[in-house]
Amino acid sequence: MKRKLLPCIACLFFWNLSYSQHLEIGLGFGNNVSNIDFHHSSKVTTDDDKEWQTYWNSNFNINLCAPISKNRWYLKSEIGFLKINSFFILNYDYDEGLGIKKGLLASYLTNQKIYFSIAPQYRIQFSSAVFKISAGPMFTSDISNVLTSTNSTLLPKSSPPGFKIETGIQYNFKNIGAEFNIGYAKIGQSELQNRWHPKISYNLIVANFGITYSMNNERKEDINEN
Q1: What is the pLDDT of residues 143-200, one digit of tens each?
Q2: Residue 4 parent element (H or E)
Q3: Which domains does the chain have, with CATH numbers?
Q4: pTM reported for the whole predicted model
Q5: What is the DSSP string of the chain?
Q6: Over the range 178-193, which residues count as b (16 or more CB within 10 Å of their CB) and which as e?
């Protein structure tokens, strides 16, 4: 699945290069606060009465924005990297066909993912500042996935599509811009160990700073005026 996903990510990302000659290229880096939801046929509880733990993690992305008409609408394509660290202590019941057993898992989880998102973006111009908001699907695939308690490396997986909602502000000086973005991302369910044990899904609050470069500033100003 991973081998099929990555070529699709690359094709969709670089398709934006040919979509318009008037591109804005951006680099972003920052932090994300993550928590994990657990999904299982039985009730999942924890020793500390919490169903999740949160950690500060890192992210990095490269993005392309292209105007899709003579108005404030753009198409944003983004490819990036997420590192997610979490700790949890789980209690649950499971049945492999030999009767109900008690499951206990206490572990640090280190998960590194590559992701791709594509979304329509709406912009409002305020002098040299631009307010932006976007929402669209998000596709992820594991680079590495390690459970510390069992000292095991899990097989890389591609999660079902999630979504990403983001808002931000950008200040421009000629063709160069500085931006700050904050948003929410949902990553779909994936197996933690195997089908008998809980599945996990991630909720992320993502914040990052970035720089942008507009390849045609005059065209950009014309679009914002319209």
Answers
A1: 877 776 655 555 556 678 889 999 999 999 888 999 999 999 998 877 777 777 778 8
A2: helix 2-19
A3: 2-225 (2.40.160.20)
A4: 0.77
A5: -HHHHHHHHHHHHHHHHHH-SS-EEEEEEEEEEEEEEEE-SS--B-TTS-S---EEEEEEEEEEEEE-SSSSEEEEEEEEEEEEEEEEEEEEEEESSS-EEEEEEEEEEEEEEEEEEEEEEEEEEETTEEEEEEEEEEEEEEEEEEETTTTEEPPP-BPPPEEEEEEEEEEEETTEEEEEEEEEEEEEEEESSSTTS-EEEEEEEEEEEEEEEES-HHHHHHHHH-
A6: ebebebebbbbbbbbe
- The answer to whether residues 45 and 91 touch, using CB atoms and an 8 Å cutoff, is yes
3-state secondary structure at position 162: strand
Q: Write the single-letter amino acid at 212.
A: T
